[in-house]
């Protein structure tokens, strides 16, 4: 089976999948042709944004995607740029983001709140800040001291808040750590939540433990309608290039580990989040996709950093993903659409 290079009509998600098909002409012709597993299929992909500019800003280094309540999509660069995309998934606006001192962020995750403000995570401190649509800094959320890069047992710089998502009801915000805490085992990851209060602001909620694939970091998460999370884990090795695996994580019954100083896989008193492999994306049909990364095992796959659910119909999801090109000649900015079928709890 393969991904055919042909325009085959409108796909279900009119704003996303059909646009990708029109932009690059790469689409799955029918259900099953782009199958990566029984749960995941690639629908289409586009390299149309690769090495482009908009209003003098480089359209690359994209680390996160978000969808607002009207279906409009934003793409966040880890160089403190936030792009608004039009219906053809090309940039229509760009604003710069900065911290309290006016300095750039290492911006990695984004959620568009119900009032249109943007919640943006940075893996520098780590932090989550709220911005207006025009990029004005409005507030900063509290972050537990144990996750900070300056704390003795805390986060490792550039390995902290990589993923950010909000549940459909807008009550729970969640950030995922890309890497481990110094005091934890190297395969453990922490998910930090915030709960919306009566005044609309967020207060710290439970912190959960997650066991990642050995050698993999969490690049993004997306909350599903039933309280679970899609989790993108990705890794790089010189002999195979980029690899990525999509998991489903379930916090139901998991321990609140906020006060647990050290997490290891052998702890008996901590209940980790449930974790189910949905697909190894290296098994996805590559079709005519190309890669400039030496020894890339599957040329369709790159450094997948952004992921957003654009449609949900029961247990069937339409997901948009983006790769970070790191502003490198050997990497590509690539948008994907993917169908995901969630297993029952």
Structure summarized in a few sentences:
The protein has 345 residues and is an all-beta fold. It has one helix at residues 17-24; strands at residues 26-27, 40-46, 52-54, 57-59, 62-67, 73-77, 81-85, 91-96, 107-112, 118-122, 127-131, 137-140, 161-166, 172-177, 188-196, 202-211, 217-223, 229-237, 241-250, 274-280, 304-313, 316-323, 335-341.
Supply the key terms.
mainly beta, 345 residues, five-stranded antiparallel β-sheet, globular, Tachylectin-2, Chain A, single chain, 23 strands, 2% helix, 1 helix, four-stranded antiparallel β-sheet, disordered N terminus
Question: Could you tell me the strand content as a percent range?
Answer: 35-45%
Cα-atom radius of gyration: 19 Å
CATH architecture level-2 label: 5 Propeller
Mean residue pLDDT: 91
> What oligomeric state do the depicted chains represent?
single chain
The low-confidence parts are 1-15
Principal-axes geometry comes out as globular
Output the structural class.
mainly beta
- The CA-CA distance between the termini, in Å, is 30 Å
Can you identify the CATH class? Mainly Beta
| Strands, count | 23
Question: What name does the CATH topology carry?
Answer: Tachylectin-2, Chain A
Strand order of the largest sheet: 1-2-23-22-21
Largest sheet report: 5 strands, antiparallel
If helices are DSSP runs of H or I spanning 4 or more residues, what is the number of helices? 1
Tally of separate domains: 1
Q: Secondary-structure element sequence?
A: HEEEEEEEEEEEEEEEEEEEEEEE
The percent of residues in helical segments reads under 10%
